Amino acid sequence: MNYKAFMAMLARDVRVARRNIVALLFQTFLQPLMFVFIFGRVMVGSGYMPPSYKSLLLPGIMALSMVGTGIWAVAMPLIGEFQFTREIEDRLLAPMDISWVAIEKVVAGTLQALAAGLMVIPFAWLLLRPGVDLSLHRPILFAVVALLVAVFSACGGLALGCSVEQTHIGLMFSLVVAPMIFFGCTYYPWSALANFPIMQKIVLVNPLVYASEGLRATLVPQFPHLSLLAVFVALLGFNALFLTVGLRQFHKKAVS
Amino acid sequence: MAAGIRTNELRKVYNSAPPLAAGAGGFSFAEKRSKGKQPKPEIVALNGISLDIHAGEIFCLLGPNGAGKSTTVGVLTTRVKPTAGQAWIGEHDVWKEQSTVKRLIGVVAQRPNLDFSLTAREILVFHGAYFGLSSHERNHRAASLLERFKLTDRADQIVRGFSGGMMQRLSIARAMMHDPQVLFLDEPSAGLDPQTRLLLWEIIREYNRSGKTVLLTTHNMEEADALCQRLAIVDHGRIIALGTPAELKASVPGGYLVRVRFGQHSPNLFERLQALSGVREVRATENSGADLYADRGGSLVSEVANLALAANIELCDVHISEPSLENLFLHHTGRSLRE
Ligand SMILES: Nc1ncnc2c1ncn2[C@@H]1O[C@H](COP(=O)(O)OP(=O)(O)OP(=O)(O)O)[C@@H](O)[C@H]1O
Ligand SMILES: [Mg+2]
Question: Counting ligands in written order, which one lies closest to the CA of residue B45?
Answer without folding.
Answer: 1
